[in-house]
Amino acid sequence: xxERQLVYLTSPDCAFCTDGRAIVQRLAGExxxxxxxxxxxxxxxxxxxxxxxxxxxxxxYLDDRLLCYGxxxxxxxxxxxxxxxx
Length: 86
Description:
It is built from three helices and four strands; from the N terminus they run βαβαββα. It is an alpha+beta fold. The protein has a single domain, classed as Glutaredoxin (3-Layer(aba) Sandwich), CATH 3.40.30.10. Strands 2-1-3-4 form a four-stranded mixed sheet, sandwiched between helices. Strand 1, helix 1 and strand 2 form a beta-alpha-beta unit.
């Protein structure tokens, strides 16, 4: 079984990005998700932002589906991940 990919879009000097990184890593470990951290302004990052309508970093995507952006709430992200079929 292949792991699903959790994409974490970040930006330099983003306090929310730094705070959310630990949450994303913890949940990925618990749920066997592969994490790819990308720059907000990278080509793939820009494409995800346009498609997912994230307005500011950080943004969390699962298999290219926007789950959340801005301040990462572990509780809310956990609920979002639980809603997505495996």
